[in-house]
């Protein structure tokens, strides 16, 4: 595994570093992203897209065997109550748009490289030990309960967004790697 301290995918030198790390028989799990709490602006969008641009530039040279991209369910239009893998991907939110653009870039890159398989996983909100996002959901509820003895709920109960446990998402990723899966899959409960 290569973390951002070793390879900063937002910078051009990442290409050289990745070329030195990756091999043709490798499977790559792309889960690097600047998450919404880091910004939902154009600058953050650009950095998120640049990460995949740099990866794709290396994949065209190294031609790895399998890519698993961890995207987001944010790609789906929030007005849709029920979504599936064929639901339209559209948004005016820069974070969601970055994932839509990244998926498109990876599809184009992998399509042009013979025998490179691409799996796109679109998890709902992920929760579990070690979460640093503190977004609305199970982790925030637990932290709040432990700190103040209270759980703060927003709105009037209209929030029905799914949350998937990190260990379940990891198991889905493992199965994708084991079977060299390709295509789009919503990683949900």
Low-confidence stretches: none
Q: Biggest β-sheet: count, sense, barrel? A: 4 strands, parallel
Mean pLDDT: 91
Strand order of the largest sheet: 1-2-3-6
- Tell me what portion of residues adopts beta-strand conformation: 5-15%
Order of helices and strands: HEHEHEEHEHE
Overall helicity: 25-40%
Distance between the termini: 27 Å
Counted by DSSP, the helix tally is 5
Key attributes of the depicted protein:
single chain; 6 strands; globular; 5 helices; four-stranded parallel β-sheet; 189 residues
Concise synopsis of the structure shown:
It contains five helices and six strands. The protein is of the alpha/beta class and 189 residues long. It is globular and about 55 Å long.
Task: Write the SSE topology.
Layout (H helix, E strand, L loop, with lengths): L13 H8 L5 E4 L11 H21 L3 E5 L23 H18 L5 E7 L1 E3 L10 H11 L14 E3 H14 L3 E5 L2
Parallel strand pairs: 1-2, 2-3, 3-6, 4-5
Helix pairs in contact: 1-2, 2-3
């Amino acid at each position: 595994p290569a973390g951002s301290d070793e390879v900063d995918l937002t910078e051009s030198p990442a290409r050289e570093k990745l070329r030195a790390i990756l091999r043709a028989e490798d499977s790559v799990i792309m889960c690097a992203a600047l998450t919404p709490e880091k910004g939902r602006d154009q600058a953050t969008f650009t950095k998120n897209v640049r990460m995949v641009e740099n990866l794709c530039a290396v994949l065209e040279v190294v031609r790895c065997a399998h890519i698993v991209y961890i995207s987001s369910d944010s790609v789906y239009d929030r007005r849709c109550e029920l979504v599936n893998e064929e639901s339209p991907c559209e948004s005016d939110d820069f974070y969601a748009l970055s994932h839509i653009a990244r998926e498109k870039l990876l599809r184009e890159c992998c399509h042009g490289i013979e025998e490179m398989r691409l799996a796109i996983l679109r998890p709902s909100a992920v929760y579990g030990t070690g979460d640093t996002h503190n977004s609305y959901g199970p982790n925030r509820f637990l932290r709040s309960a432990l700190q103040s003895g209270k759980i703060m709920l927003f709105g009037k109960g209209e929030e029905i967004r799914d949350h998937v446990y990190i260990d379940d998402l990891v198991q889905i990723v493992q199965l994708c790697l084991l079977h060299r899966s390709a295509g789009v899959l919503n990683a949900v409960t």
